[in-house]
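Consider the tokenized backbone below.
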């Protein structure tokens, strides 16, 4: 038998193809939701649907923060980038509270506290990490 001819010992056995790994979004959304609940930060679904829930005009003024307190009558912190936006958000607090309670359940948000953050901090919430997490959240939400 020469070296350039294949041997005729039968079919070559190979391993079966591996399954692809599970989607990271499938598991990470559960982990982020649990983490948000333990640290009293707002539900990621609420943060991603903020504009839809409170309306585009109010969403342009502020963003949600921590939700502290019990299951009934909790306090939602809302962050505004400037004094003018904070004043307007405070004026719209009752409208926000009513709309959020329609989504979260009756009486879930009892009070809204508006906090002013520097305009630069609002423009860049957490730098590259914040941008990466925003893209990740959008990707997970899109795949659902």
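A designed sequence for it:
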């Amino acid at each position: 038998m020469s070296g350039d001819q294949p041997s005729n010992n039968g079919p070559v056995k190979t391993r079966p193809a591996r399954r692809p790994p599970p989607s990271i979004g499938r598991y990470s959304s559960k982990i982020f939701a649990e983490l948000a609940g333990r640290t009293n930060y707002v539900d990621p679904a609420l943060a991603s649907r903020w504009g839809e829930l409170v309306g585009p005009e109010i969403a342009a003024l502020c963003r949600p923060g921590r939700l502290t307190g019990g299951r009934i009558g909790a306090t939602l912190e809302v962050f505004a980038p400037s004094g003018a936006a904070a004043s307007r958000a405070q004026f719209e607090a009752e409208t926000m509270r009513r709309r959020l309670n329609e989504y979260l359940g009756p009486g879930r948000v009892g009070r809204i506290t508006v906090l002013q953050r520097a305009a630069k901090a609002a423009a860049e919430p957490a730098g590259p990490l914040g941008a990466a997490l925003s893209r990740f959240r959008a990707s997970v939400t899109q795949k659902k």
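The chain has a mean pLDDT of 80.
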